[in-house]
Automatic annotation (TrEMBL):
PANTHER family found in the cross-reference section: IODOTHYRONINE DEIODINASE (PTHR11781), TYPE I IODOTHYRONINE DEIODINASE (PTHR11781:SF22)
Residues spanning the signal sequence: none
InterPro entries associated with the record: Iodothyronine_deiodinase
Example GO biological process: thyroid hormone metabolic process
Protein's name in the database: Deiodinase
UniProt-listed Gene3D superfamilies: Glutaredoxin
Molecular function terms from GO: thyroxine 5'-deiodinase activity
Organism: Occallatibacter riparius
UniProt cross-references to Pfam families, sorted A to Z: T4_deiodinase
Amino acid sequence: MDFYAIYILEAHPTDVWQMQSNVRDNVLFATPKNDLERVNVANACWRKLGIKFPALVDSMDNRVEGAYTGWPDRLYLIDRGGRVIFKTKPGPFGFDPDELAKAMQGLHQ
Protein backbone atom coordinates (compact mmCIF):
# COMPACT_ATOMS: atom_id res chain seq x y z
CA MET A 1 0.00 0.00 0.00
CA ASP A 2 1.36 3.44 -0.94
CA PHE A 3 0.65 6.73 0.81
CA TYR A 4 1.02 10.19 -0.73
CA ALA A 5 0.39 13.70 0.49
CA ILE A 6 -0.75 16.06 -2.24
CA TYR A 7 -0.11 19.76 -1.76
CA ILE A 8 -2.97 21.72 -3.29
CA LEU A 9 -3.74 25.35 -2.42
CA GLU A 10 -2.04 27.37 0.28
CA ALA A 11 -4.78 27.49 2.90
CA HIS A 12 -3.82 30.76 4.59
CA PRO A 13 -1.54 32.79 2.33
CA THR A 14 -0.10 35.99 3.76
CA ASP A 15 -1.45 38.02 0.84
CA VAL A 16 -5.05 36.92 1.52
CA TRP A 17 -5.63 36.27 5.24
CA GLN A 18 -3.69 34.82 8.11
CA MET A 19 -4.42 32.68 11.13
CA GLN A 20 -2.75 33.53 14.43
CA SER A 21 -1.50 29.94 14.73
CA ASN A 22 0.40 30.39 11.44
CA VAL A 23 2.02 33.56 12.75
CA ARG A 24 2.91 31.84 16.03
CA ASP A 25 4.36 28.80 14.21
CA ASN A 26 6.03 30.94 11.53
CA VAL A 27 4.13 29.24 8.71
CA LEU A 28 3.87 32.31 6.52
CA PHE A 29 3.70 31.94 2.74
CA ALA A 30 2.27 34.13 -0.01
CA THR A 31 0.11 32.59 -2.71
CA PRO A 32 2.47 30.87 -5.18
CA LYS A 33 2.42 32.53 -8.62
CA ASN A 34 3.92 29.63 -10.62
CA ASP A 35 4.80 25.94 -10.39
CA LEU A 36 8.28 26.52 -8.96
CA GLU A 37 6.96 28.75 -6.16
CA ARG A 38 4.26 26.17 -5.37
CA VAL A 39 6.86 23.38 -5.17
CA ASN A 40 9.06 25.53 -2.90
CA VAL A 41 6.16 26.30 -0.54
CA ALA A 42 5.10 22.64 -0.55
CA ASN A 43 8.66 21.52 0.29
CA ALA A 44 8.81 24.00 3.18
CA CYS A 45 5.48 22.73 4.50
CA TRP A 46 6.55 19.08 4.27
CA ARG A 47 9.76 19.83 6.17
CA LYS A 48 7.96 21.86 8.83
CA LEU A 49 5.22 19.22 9.23
CA GLY A 50 7.73 16.35 9.22
CA ILE A 51 5.90 14.39 6.51
CA LYS A 52 7.78 11.11 6.06
CA PHE A 53 6.00 9.66 3.02
CA PRO A 54 6.10 10.77 -0.63
CA ALA A 55 4.39 14.03 -1.43
CA LEU A 56 3.15 15.40 -4.74
CA VAL A 57 2.21 18.92 -5.83
CA ASP A 58 -1.01 19.84 -7.64
CA SER A 59 -0.67 21.90 -10.84
CA MET A 60 -1.37 25.63 -10.86
CA ASP A 61 -4.78 24.96 -12.44
CA ASN A 62 -5.66 23.02 -9.24
CA ARG A 63 -6.81 19.99 -11.22
CA VAL A 64 -6.41 17.50 -8.33
CA GLU A 65 -8.12 19.76 -5.81
CA GLY A 66 -11.00 20.27 -8.23
CA ALA A 67 -11.38 16.56 -8.96
CA TYR A 68 -11.18 15.39 -5.35
CA THR A 69 -12.32 18.42 -3.32
CA GLY A 70 -9.31 18.06 -1.06
CA TRP A 71 -9.49 21.49 0.54
CA PRO A 72 -8.61 22.06 3.29
CA ASP A 73 -7.51 18.48 3.82
CA ARG A 74 -9.07 15.11 3.29
CA LEU A 75 -8.06 11.46 3.36
CA TYR A 76 -8.80 9.23 0.37
CA LEU A 77 -8.35 5.52 -0.19
CA ILE A 78 -7.93 4.71 -3.88
CA ASP A 79 -7.72 1.15 -5.18
CA ARG A 80 -5.14 -0.07 -7.69
CA GLY A 81 -7.60 0.63 -10.52
CA GLY A 82 -7.79 4.32 -9.55
CA ARG A 83 -11.29 4.08 -8.06
CA VAL A 84 -12.04 6.04 -4.85
CA ILE A 85 -13.25 3.46 -2.35
CA PHE A 86 -13.26 5.65 0.75
CA LYS A 87 -13.04 9.36 1.58
CA THR A 88 -13.34 11.23 4.83
CA LYS A 89 -15.18 14.46 5.44
CA PRO A 90 -13.07 17.59 4.93
CA GLY A 91 -10.54 18.30 7.65
CA PRO A 92 -8.94 19.32 9.75
CA PHE A 93 -11.84 18.56 12.06
CA GLY A 94 -14.05 16.58 9.67
CA PHE A 95 -12.16 13.36 9.41
CA ASP A 96 -11.22 10.49 11.68
CA PRO A 97 -8.06 8.51 10.81
CA ASP A 98 -9.65 5.49 12.52
CA GLU A 99 -12.31 5.44 9.78
CA LEU A 100 -9.55 5.24 7.18
CA ALA A 101 -7.86 2.42 9.12
CA LYS A 102 -11.12 0.45 9.12
CA ALA A 103 -11.50 0.95 5.37
CA MET A 104 -7.93 -0.21 4.84
CA GLN A 105 -8.54 -3.32 6.93
CA GLY A 106 -11.47 -4.12 4.67
CA LEU A 107 -9.07 -4.36 1.73
CA HIS A 108 -7.24 -7.24 3.35
CA GLN A 109 -10.29 -9.38 4.09
